[in-house]
What does this fold into?
Amino acid sequence: MRAVVYTRQSFDRTGEGAAVARQLEDCLRLAELRGWTIVEQHSDNDISAAGKKKRPGFEAVLSAIAEDRATVVIAWALDRLSRNRADELRLVELCERKAATIALVRGTDLDMSTPAGILVADVMGATARHEIKQKSDRQRRAQQQAAEQGKPAGGRRAFGYGSDGVTVNEAEARHVREAFADVMHGASLKGIARRWNDAQALTTAGNLWTHGTVRGVLKNPRYAGLRTYRGEVVGPAVWPALIDEDTFEAVRAILSVPERRTTLTTARKYLLPGLALCWKCGSDCATGHTRHGKRVYVCRANKCISRKADDVDALVEAVIVERLSRPDAGDLLATDNRDELRELQGKAAGIRQRLDDLATGLEEGVLTLAAVRKSSERLRNELRRVEVEMAATVHTDALGPLVDAQDVAAAWSALDVQQRRGAVDALMRVTLLKPETGRRDFDPASVRIDWRAP
Ligand SMILES: [Zn+2]
It folds into this structure.
């Protein structure tokens, strides 16, 4: 019979059988006694490869049996052969299938070609399976308990925290806080990813940020100091929050609104498309180019007007900077929209609850599929409207940093286009009028600016 020998170096309390050389010697003598031919010999070293690393030697033994190169496995003792119950189960099941024998220097043979051997293997397998299941039950219970106590889940370090998941990594935390604030002010995820990459603040796996991974950070309840378990928030966490729950909810709402998503991820290039209105028909204006390559704002619906975009942009920006530089600029800020936001959040939560109730009703057979479909569509539309409103509420926050700035012009030029659009939208309504006939230069009076009441 062809045999494969397996030896393993590991910590051994008794000292007996610790040396691979000793294991090998004993295994070779056993093969000689039984008259077996040794066709392969494999070894692993658990001392150098501690932890959960694969054991290439053990895997080679399995494939020698699986591919019929050998019908006997020789090892010094069962605990030398398989390091854990899962490996033991794999080996025993494979040998049973292949009617192979496991021969041990210390211990009885398991000859799977005999009923006695199969019986022993069955018992061993059942014991192993039971232990594995108990272990995973124990692990699951431990994980659930850790979650309920708000303890970190382990795994890869979260951006903004130390490897214990609790200590704040201030350098990264600053980026996280800024990103939440920036999204509130209309910044794009792509822009945030670029800024983090430029600052050499890579992901904790050492990769460059993308808008997708930034989104993952901004939607992670961990940053509001909340512990999740299997995707659900289960309660407060033991680590400190980086942002408050209101901000987290607001950003989550912004990122979940489909209409906003496109404008957030593919940031607009220009200041006023979609914002400036046509004086004649009231439609908004789109941006386009003349035959001579000049960029213009054109009435989107009826093409009533076409105005040189650079002139209009420059005027609007100058007016905003001037207005925000005045001492009473603070009056322009919406007093406090936290209450409004909280009310909208409550409304959204109520709608989500009703959607859940519908699903439960369907599961329990209380409601028909047709009825659920009809109601859920209505609720979903309602939810979308509330979320758009929430996004609009938080977008007025764009003005805060501008009003607080010492040098408004400098603060303005530091904003990206999306943030500037947020500010324009919050402050004013821009209407493009028809210029006086015959006039060739730009007339500031041909742009009407109506300030929104705070
Ligand atoms: Zn028009």
Observations:
- The longest helix spans residues 115-148.
- The two ends are 91 Å apart (CA to CA).
